[in-house]
Amino acid sequence: MYFNSDWENSYKELQSWYPVFYLDVREMRAILQAHGSMADDIQAAIEKVVNDFYIDTADEETIGRFEKFLDIIPERGSTLDDRRAYVKSFFMGFGKISETIIKQVIKTIAGLDVSCLFEPFDEDRNNCLYIIFQENDDYRAYMDKIKEFLSRRVPAHIIICFDFKFRNTAYLYTGSLLQVRQKIIVCEKST
Asked: Model pTM?
């Protein structure tokens, strides 16, 4: 609420500005009620405009207009917060693309912390953008959105590779009389 008022509505506030004897006049009360109702409507409209100005507080109609403008087809069953996050990702860091922007956008879309590498991958020294998902990341639900974002923002001559790091834990028991438990972490890399 952008209008801080101690009054329950604008009619009550308008009443406080007038002398008490005016409140006994029926016509004055009717005028104050009409103007109080208009002031309440104006306040509500201003709050809606201000809320719709920011993606995080925009209503469904405004997010729908953003999606139409950005040529985004919302997924069936996606919540308003998911749609807001996806629209917001299109406005983050427009212009040059960088590791920081990619990380921020993936964090906004999926809530995941990722690592990025940009390094040569072949004999001709062509570069590849590696996006590395860490263990326990639930990336599957958001992979289509992440791929769509990257296809729109990363230049076409840069190859994008997704790396997924998983950890398997194995226990190695050693010793003759005494068993010592050691934890060994084995990393697997797959694309």
From this structure: 0.53
Grouping H, G, I as helix, E, B as strand and the rest as coil, residue 17 is: helix
Please tell me the total count of domains within the chain: 2
Orientation of helix 80-91 relative to helix 143-153, angle to 10°: 20
Would you say 163 and 187 are in contact if contact means Cβ atoms under 8 Å apart?
no
Q: How many CB atoms lie within 10 A of CB 92?
A: 16
Residue 28 sits in which domain range?
10-53
Element (H, E) at 167: strand 159-174
Q: For every one of its 191 residues, what pLDDT tens digit does the chain have, with 9 covering 90 and above?
A: 566 667 788 888 888 888 888 888 899 889 999 999 999 999 889 989 999 999 999 999 999 999 999 888 888 888 898 889 888 877 775 667 788 888 888 888 888 888 888 888 788 888 888 888 876 656 777 788 888 888 877 877 788 888 877 665 565 555 444 444 455 555 555 55
133-144: buried (b, 16+ CB within 10 Å) or exposed (e) per residue? beeebebeebee
Same domain, 99 and 159: yes
Residue 172: strand, helix, or coil: strand
Residue 5 in domain: no
